[in-house]
Amino acid sequence: MDVKQIVNQMTLEEKAAMCSGADFWHTEKVERLGIPASMVSDGPHGLRKQPDESSGDHLGLNDAIEAVCFPAACATASSFDRELLHDMGVTLGKECQAEGVSVLLGPAVNIKRSPLCGRNFEYLSEDPYLAGELAASYINGVQSQNVGTSIKHFAANNQESERMSVSAEVDERTLREIYFPAFETAVKKAQPWTVMCSYNRLNGTYASEHKWLLTDVLRNDWGFEGYVMSDWGAVRDRVKGIIAGMDLEMPGSSGANDRAIIQAVQEGSLKEETLDLAVERILNIVYRYAENRQNEAFSREKDHQKAAEIARQCIVLLKNEAQVLPLVQDEKIALIGGFAEKPRYQGGGSSHINSHTVPCAVQLKDQYGNMTYAKGFTADGDQYEEDLEKEALEVAEQSDKIAVFAGLPDVFESESYDREHMRLPDCQNQLIEKLTKLGKPVIVVLHNGSPVEMPWVDNVQGIVEAYLGGEAVAEAVMDILYGEVNPSGRLAETFPRRLEDNPSYLNFPGMQKQVNYAEGIFVGYRYYDARKMDVLFPFGYGLSYTEFSYSNLKIDKSRITAKDTLMVSLDVTNTGSMEGKEIVQLYVSDKTQAAIRPVRELKNFTAVTLKPGETKTVSMELDYRAFAWYDTEQKDWYAAGGTYEICIGKSSRDIVMRTEVVLENEKEKLPKIDENVMIGDLMDCTKTADYVEERLMPYIGEFIGKTSMKEMDEMERSMVYYMPLSSLRSFTKLDNEGLGELVDELKNHMR
Ligand code: BGC
Fold it and tell me: Transmembrane ranges (predicted)?
């Protein structure tokens, strides 16, 4: 289809109308020109297609078609498995084709800055590398079925409090290293058809009007080719938005913004070419879908099985003292807790799926073993009920082991608002404590979208983190409990001991519509590891029913340049007695001391399945970016020459093998030359060290009393180090004119 040609035939009114939704879920059609409407739907972990236009909503309140609820991102991220996310994407893409949905609104990749964000369940990780890799796999999966995705919410939408107005105040290095890379990786590796801009402001400007964000970074730096749509109701000044690169307003403005666009073009404040570009980008995607329809059928039964298969690989075994798990079939198990009857398997808000079928542990128990159920507490809130507690304690007394199905009730976490604390309901904590006093092994199974404090952690023998595992979560949990499946999930976020330990604690959610990301790049484990802080469970942590040993760590080069790719390989052996999947994590640690850096950062990972006794060699690549940080002076990624440690870990805290590589970087970090450049920076830089000796020493000598840098002792050097060039004017005979000459000379010298 020649889209440019079509745009040429459109009237100004038709073009303006094309830049906002026709209704809650459709783009505008133009019958005169044969332009079809196209439908978009939430996302991300299932299809929330609302069939009736009049009851469309963005909070998951009204009816949607029956669909399959897959595990939410908090769970899928714990798989650390790119193939799994791809596979889930393919299934969702096929469902979209079957249902006539052109763009699935996801994945949601905002970084988990605080455990309190009400929407963390929908987000992948606190780590940008992991979030980016998994998002790219999911997108490639969905889009392999000729259905688009909308990666969201771009950018710095890390809380629900005041989400439609708050300004996230974030410095550029932190944006580039923490809050952007998930989007950047997805754009570079998967080219999502669309990007959804967020509600909030970023450093004072609404994301929907942010030209630097939507054009300079997204399109010019990363090469995004699709269209940007607004989050539902995120538009303020529509004309500014078009100029910034925000193409499609959703759901629309009842025509008010169409008129604003028309008027702006007529008055000349908006160039018609700019509008044409937005329309062209939207139509490219509309036609990409329309011209590649696939004949698919949506089998809810089959996809339910897929949801179960995925859920099994997302569960994280957090504690297994004295091998309390797996359970043995004839052991008498007390099955306690309302979540065994009503599993919490998805979060509230726009991602809420009208699920096909949700089996629960109580229904499944007889297929697995000898379990007796007592509710103990409700899954719906925090109400202590004496009768329920009494009954639970009685059933527990009669058992060999106790399995408590606990979790966060729906109202505790959802889109649209944040959590107030990090605790489970008191009624659950109290019962768990009482159960631990019976002298029988206690296993807690958790259903939650983000970390909880565990006051009973030392008194229970087993902890299974099921997260919000989708509609088949109960089947997956039972398979893990009874050892049908070996757990392989790893935490994609740190579980701090207390909320107060979290780096954003003093700056979340901000006040007066402003939130200061004062912790900078030290988000999640980057902070806890730097502070050597005790945590409940570290990033990357998770147990298995088998054991894995690592050996033979090799790198294919001991010295690399900025252009090289380093190949890291090692052997992984299953030394236990059960088949299992191991997640091998690769962290890089910068030893050059050239910049403030986290202790180590995840830069690759791989999943490997091994039979007992089996060994496989795994290989992971590292490119220059894996070593680099974002230098805001140079406006570029930079890794200083020097030594970097390659760490292979079972979590960010459990590094089991290490080796070193030397990076030779001819590209030296050059000081920015103006009258405030520090003399120390000029001394350190190979290009300017001679200049300091020849041209600056005569001035420095006036107050240090030496004629050459070599004569200066360490203390004298240190005293001069932090002096800006301009300070020579205060302490020497250098005047303004002379200072200007030095600056010009230095600039020439750098060329
Ligand atoms: C959410 C988006 C969602 C949209 C449409 C908004 O409230 O933030 O993630 O895609 O609604 O339902």
Answer: none
